[in-house]
Amino acid sequence: MPTSNETPNRHDVIIIGAGIIGCAIALSMTRKGYKTLNVDALPAAGYGSTSSSAAVIRTYYSTRDGTAMALEGYHDWKNWQAYLETEDAGELAHFIETGTLVMKTASDNYQKHVLEHADALGIPYEHWSADRITQELPGYNLDCFAPAKTMDDDDFGMPTGGALQGGVFFPAGATSRSANRRPQPEGCGSQAWGAVPLQDQDCQDSGREQPCHRCSH
Ligand SMILES: Cc1cc2nc3c(=O)[nH]c(=O)nc-3n(C[C@H](O)[C@H](O)[C@H](O)COP(=O)(O)OP(=O)(O)OC[C@H]3O[C@@H](n4cnc5c(N)ncnc54)[C@H](O)[C@@H]3O)c2cc1C
Q: What is the whole-number distance in angstroms between the Cα of residue 49 and the centre of ligand 1?
């Protein structure tokens, strides 16, 4: 039970961290009547991992619980003003429904578990072939670049042979954009679509001499 009503300099709850999670906890507890204090080692709220976020709002995750939480979060982002229970004076982040595309890779078992979670939770998706991807996202490079290389490697940025064969498109996906951020230039394929190439790029055989370490082909 909240106890701080008569002691304004005291707090009911001290939350370590003022990233998106710590701030969301503070908001929820404040709504329940608790007086909260976020403490953070960094100079301001959101300076940790939160400041690095690419602002992708997606509903595909590797665990059922994570997927369910992301789906709930998707609806909160979609109704951001209502979630915050505040007026929008033009400063709230914009929710831009782009859909999100995740590639099918051998190392991800071609998204088998992700799709099982989506089926269980009623999250819609479409299978996209390589042709569909390049048709929808002109300029998208499906070449395989695995294994990852450091920037001082002579072959950094060079394809290693093979290509991705397809992906899964989730219409319920978005990006959020700060109200005061400049818009993306037009024609900026994957950013405009909110498409997210996985870090685990791998490939299926298309003539490579040595299989990459992720790929069973
Ligand atoms: C490059 C990158 C891109 C990402 N892109 C996306 C994306 O597009 N979409 C998405 O949904 N997620 C994305 N994420 C993940 C997302 O940013 C994180 O999951 C999320 O920000 C984590 O929030 P958090 O509050 O738990 O952590 P943080 O934002 O890191 O907050 C934790 C805070 O706790 C403080 N802290 C920790 N220990 C102490 C201590 N002992 N004393 C005082 N302070 C302490 C830290 O200083 C920090 O400020 C991305 C992450 C990265 C790194």
A: 3
